[in-house]
Amino acid sequence: MAETESALQAIENGLAALGTRFRDAFAKAENEQALRVEQAKVLGKKGELTAVLGLLKGVLPADRPAAGARINVFKEQVEQAFSQRLKEIHRQARDAELSALPFDLSLPGRTELGRGHLHPVAQTRDALLAIFRDLGFAVGAGPEVELEANNFTKLAFPPDHPATDMQDSFWVDVAGAQPGARTLLRTHTSAVQIREMSSHRPPMAVVSAGSVFRRDDDLTHSPMFHQIEGFMVDEGVSFAHLKAVVGAFAERLYGPGTPVRFRPSYFPFVEPGAEVDAGCAFCVRPDGSHAGCRVCKQSGWLELLGCGMIHPDVLRHCGIDSEKYTGFAFGLGIDRVAMLRYGIPNIRLLFENDPRFLSQF
Ligand code: FA5
């Protein structure tokens, strides 16, 4: 009996000493790691409480449950003290962070990332669109996957025209398309003419820009490239209006006084049709004559665009009275203009996405 009493006393004394020690150690622990070390010293396998538990051997079996319960209460006290101190440590760390000196927002930023900018084709597109906007054209748009009807048929392409061939165009199947309605990646932005003229009534003057696709691939031809297309329809629109718009466009693009020349050409959707060249801006002399250079292949002229008076059949296909209304249309490759503008010799450079190349523009 005396033996068990002294064992119980030893347990009580042990817990009391341990209690003072761990409370002191927890209060002094300055960070989470130090706190966890102190906790392990008390509760760990080789910790001080294990030594106290050893004293249970000297307690009579009848007194052991009460002694065990006493030890469990102590364990809970340790754990409670531990989580309380941990919360305190976290709060102190957060307070220190919040009251530390704020970031200096006036410091210069890191420059390694560099600033991006618009792709040279996008810059050229925007410059060209701005010219036509200034001339009074509205900006329209159409999809890149287009109906055969809008890309070819309503533009009066005969069914056996080479452009409609599998070798020239990318035909695609579209899930849910109307039966019999063939679809392809549009081969030119002229399809936007059809969409606009079918959904609006004259007078109208619309320009649109975007990606187009053909089975082409060499130094100056890419399978994906970009075009700008414009047209105007109203009563009394004539070739003279077309010449005025094209002339103003050339002057805005290559400088005041830039001459243009019209050469007869064929596109199924215009009659008459023409190709337009602009005087070469790279070798023009002060008197307006041209020295001839590599860019214009010594000719003094640069190809500018294709154009013509909209064929009456095209107007009719869009439900526009071709007896009352007339119109003109024109289209040009943006990539070619960008190549001239920036002196880029190979069209593929534009689409390889090499930052060493693109960062030059
Ligand atoms: C057309 O696409 C006509 N839709 C333009 C038009 C519109 C004429 C309205 C009349 C009235 P063309 O096939 O010539 O025309 O192409 C126009 C321009 O696109 C060319 O002058 C050229 O600059 C550019 N181009 C054509 N194929 C490619 C290609 N594979 N890669 C880069 N540019 C190209």
How would you explain this protein's 3D organization?
- This protein has helices spanning 2-28, 32-43, 48-54, 64-99, 120-134, 148-151, 190-199, 239-254, 312-317, 334-342, 355-358, and strands spanning 138-140, 145-147, 171-172, 183-185, 204-213, 224-234, 260-265, 270-279, 301-310, 326-333.
- By secondary structure, the protein is an alpha+beta fold.
- It has 2 domains: 2-99; 120-358, 2-Layer Sandwich (BirA Bifunctional Protein, domain 2).
- A 7-stranded mixed β-sheet has the order 1-5-6-10-9-8-7, with helices on both faces. A 3-stranded antiparallel β-sheet has the order 2-4-3.
- A hairpin with a 4-residue loop joins strand 7 (260-265) and strand 8 (270-279).
- The longest helix has 36 residues, at 64-99.
- The mean pLDDT is 92.
- Bound molecules: adenosine-5'-[phenylalaninyl-phosphate] (FA5).
- Adenosine-5'-[phenylalaninyl-phosphate] (FA5) is lined by residues 188, 190, 214, 216, 221-222, 225, 227, 229, 267, 270, 273, 303, 306-308, 329-333, 335-336, 347.
